[in-house]
Amino acid sequence: MMLVKKVSVYIVCCFSFVLVNSLAADEDIRGWEKAKYFRIEEIEGRKIFIDPYGTPFYAVSMVYSFGPEGIVGTDKRLSLEEVLQEFEAMKLQGFNTVDLYGSDYFEEILDWCEKNEMALYPRASFGSLKGLSPERREFPDFMDPEFRAQVKDYYRSYLLKIKDYSCILAVNLDQRWLFSIDYTRCFRNGDPRIGPCGIKCFPEWLKNKYGLIEKINIAWNKNYRSFNDVIKDPEIIRGQNVLKLEDKPWRVEIIEYTLWTINDFLKDLTASMRIVDPNHLLTITSDLPEAIPFPISTSENSGIDFISTVHYNYLTDYGRDWIGANRVIFSTKFIYDFSNNNPVFINETGYRTSTLGQAPPNRAYAMGKQDDEAFIAEMYLDQALLFQSLPWLCGWAFFKWYDKHPEGDFGYLRDYGTLKPVSEIGKIINPFLPVNFMAEKDPDFVIYYPEYFLASRKAGSNQFTALISIIQKRYLAKHSKTIEKMYNLIIANGTESAAKLDMQNLISSFNNTWIPFKFTNELPEGADKLVVIAGRQSEQLSIEDREKLMSRNILCFDRAGLTDERYNETAPWYLESVGLMPSEYTEKYIYVDLFTSKETDYKSFLASDKSIITARESAVTFVFPIIENDVFKYIICSGQSINLPTNAYTAVNFLAGSSRGNIARTVILNYTDGSQEKKYLGTTINDMNFKSNTGRVGWFGKPGPESPEIDLSLITVPISPAKNLESIVLPDEPLLRVYAVTLTEGGIAEKVDITVMLENQEVFGYTDWVVSVRNLTDEELKNAPFKIVARFKNDRPAILMSKDGKHISFLYDALGWSDNKKEISLNVEAHSKLLYGLINSFIKKSREEK
Fold first, then answer.
1. CA dist 747 to 583, 587, 619, Å?
2. Residue 294 near residue 334, CB atoms below 8 Å
3. Which of 333, 352, 355, 354 is nearest to 344 (CA)?
4. Mean pLDDT within 379-395
5. Using CA atoms in the order 278, 280, 285, 286, what is the torsion angle rounded to 10 degrees?
6. Contact at 8 Å (CB) between 534 and 557?
7. What's the CA gap between 51 and 33, in Å, rounded?
8. Are the beta carbons of 374 and 351 closer than 8 angstroms?
9. CB-based burial of residue 752 (10 Å sphere; 0-12 exposed, 13-18 middle, 19+ buried)?
10. Where are the alpha helices (DSSP H) in 163-235?
11. What's residue 702's pLDDT?
């Protein structure tokens, strides 16, 4: 309540007299020194902004997009006096930079910022060029010479307006990307919008890369006579559009070429801009880096001084990762490491307290607690102080000054000037944010991310976010505890708390507890450095990389190497690297005899080849349903319990159908540890008198002498191989007929619960995939090329290490990141302790090898 009361008092101070105060203070303002400009310099190992006076500068910025565009819902436009009054208010709130969206009063704003020593970070959008179609406005044809000439003319005119101003922090080129975005960060859309000129230039690019057409033919399994045949291939290009890319061999080159066109455009554009204005910094914005392919080659030659990123938190982040901290840590670190270690500016960050006014309402991004502005204020404190601790960040911008429909209540202020609790926090901390001048230490490990990973349909953003949560647990926990103390101090003391806040303590905390790491697309020299492989994109692992990685110290989290770089299926490298043979994890089918006794106890029996059937579009096999007197035998479900051979399984498969109508029912799984799971038998069980659309096995003849033929369905229920199954209980549903049951032993189980044991540590939760390894005898384990690091609760292997100690592979998804509230990655405390031991042993080993 105290915070809200102080806000109301501050409204009067900040807005009623702001213009008068600013005019009275004019004589005390000296303005930026002429012919001096913002630049980037390296100080104590890290790069940072230097202001026109030669002083280190950390940008605390406000996105201003309200005034120049007018007041939403009215015809009124703000006057120049009102706009400048709002700039004064931003300065009083402790902001030293304006992230400007808009162009009205631009020259007057330049003059004001110059005189008042406010840095200006303007967005200059070439999307306003005349003659661009909606498609080319959103996805430009970067290889079009006419388009390039138009953009150069646009920026030449723009730079002539600003070239003599010292207040310009940097020019933000309103960069466009050539892929649509999946905002879940799980998939990359294979829809490159290259454009006609880009397509025309593709053969020449291929020729420069490969030289001989025979090399492309081998890589793509094609029979081209020349490179020009590529753009005539109807499997790849039709008309003037690249077809949507599936997992085809040419996907790698097309993604790489698409990113190259962006980089080549930037290189050409920035070179021309430097001629007009050699002094001002240039930047571009990246939206959801890694999830949308980011041109790693930008680090080499694009002429960009630093990269901006847009950061918003998603609803699923809250309560699991310290206010979405790890999303912003991942995205900014990824950019930093792949852009020549240039600093990163967070172009937009913010929170909402209510859903967007859209139909249907958007409840996903930038979500804080509903209708809890005090919570948002604490979040502001948390992230502002996190940002200033990270040594690769040079500043950030809060999105935005006012609430604005339809974007929702992101605003620092409410419409027409009413302050929020977040602005009280900002007034106290903004002017005093210290900067971490100490560069990150040499990495203890590297995360391997070769360029061809960008071509994968699966992005690794979510797994990297979870990995940072787990590995940096000590740092993030200490940060969170300090923030809580600071917030309580501010609530108790208001503006008088500024002098008491030990913000430097957070920097010390980072420098002392952060575990340094680095993303890299090149393996470090020497074999001692720990290499981490994580993320869904690593399922695509080149043959060349497999050979190089086998001699390295490897910690592998994901199913790396299910295919090679051309999407050819291969033996899973992540299992091969620790010496796990296919015979120890491949699927094996156990057939259940449903009719040996009234109790339907399990009794194994051999079947001739002719009695085995395979479900269509599946590898699952069944013993053909028993026929007596030309009638299929089946079980009418009435809640029977079917005892099974106690074992670890990955699935139970039913050959079943409904005698009337499609129905949905559940089966109960009983495990030896006393636990139970209730799972649906698919989405629905189809009426066997009609052809089913999904899970169809086939037509098998007549269930009775006078009956028509039937169509049975395959229903697969995943089972956790981390437990031992002993029985299943069928539903009490007389319409449901079960003709055969097959158990799957080994292979992969998807979306199940597991418990992992490592000495005294226990990690449990929901996981996306688990590899089920068969039971190995003591003698087999003694002679196996691997050691078991951790086990599932039923004693099956969970984490394996090669006998030479170089490779460790997880046999379950430790880094899942979605909206499942039971997800195993939520168990950060236990996972962190487990990982610290593994990583520290590698680090100790590598130091000894050195």
1. 10, 5, 12
2. yes
3. 333
4. 92
5. 60
6. yes
7. 10
8. no
9. buried
10. 196-210, 213-220
11. 42
CA dist 590 and 791 (Å) reads: 24
Give the residue among 543, 575, 542, 571 at the shortest CA–CA distance from 558: 575
Report d(CA 469, CA 480) in Å as an integer.
13
Is the model's pLDDT at 396 over the cut of 50? yes
Q: Three-state SS for 188?
A: coil
DSSP sequence for 821-846: TTBGGG-HHHHHHHHHHHHHHHHHHH
Which DSSP string corresponds to 219-237? HHT---SSGGGGGG-TTTE
Torsion of Cα atoms, 103 then 104 then 108 then 109, to 10°: -50
Residue 157's contacts (CB-CB under 8 Å, 6 or more residues apart) are none
The whole-number pLDDT of residue 528 equals 82
Query: pLDDT value at position 360?
Result: 73
Q: How far apart are CA 392 and CA 641, in angstroms?
A: 60
Nearest CA-CA partner of 145 in 153, 156, 137, 135:
153
pLDDT score for 9 = 33
In 10 A of CB 34, how many CB atoms?
10
pLDDT tens-digit map of 308-361: 988 877 666 666 665 467 788 999 999 999 888 889 999 988 888 777 766 777
Q: For residue 437, what pLDDT is reported?
A: 86
DSSP state of 383: H
* Mean pLDDT, rounded, for 520-531: 87
Tokens of 364: 């996903």
Residue type, 634: Y
DSSP run (H or E) holding 300: helix 298-301
- What is the pLDDT, as a whole number, of residue 68? 53
**Closest listed residue to residue 576, CA positions, set 589, 593, 588, 559:** 559
The confidence band for 19, taking pLDDT boundaries of 50, 70 and 90, is very low
3-class SS of residue 755: strand
Structure tokens that stand for 280 in this block: 């001002």
Rounded CA-CA distance 231/236 in Å is 7
269 pLDDT band, cuts 50/70/90, is very high
Calpha distance 258→261 (Å, rounded): 5
DSSP annotation of 819:
S
User: Which pLDDT belongs to residue 843?
Assistant: 67
Structure tokens at 521: 């697309």
703-711 LR contacts (CB < 8 Å, sep 24+): 703/631, 703/632, 703/634, 703/737, 704/631, 705/630, 705/631, 710/632, 710/657, 711/657, 711/686
Specify the pTM: 0.89
How big is the chain, counted in residues?
850
Nearest one of 149, 701, 89 to 140, comparing CA atoms? 149
User: How many other C-beta atoms lie within 10 A of the C-beta of residue 21?
Assistant: 13
Q: Which of 31-45, 178-192, 536-550, 690-704 has the highest mean pLDDT?
A: 536-550
What's the helix, strand, coil split of the chain in %, to 5?
35, 25, 40
Q: Is the model's pLDDT at 602 over the cut of 60? A: no
More confident residue, 661 or 815: 815
What's the CA gap between 201 and 257, in Å, rounded? 10
**According to the 3-state scheme, what is the secondary structure of 464-516?**
HHHHHHHHCHHHHHHHHHHHHHHHHHHHHHHHHHHHHCCCHHHHHHHHHHCCC
- Backbone dihedral angles phi then psi of residue 754, each to the nearest 5 degrees: -140, 165
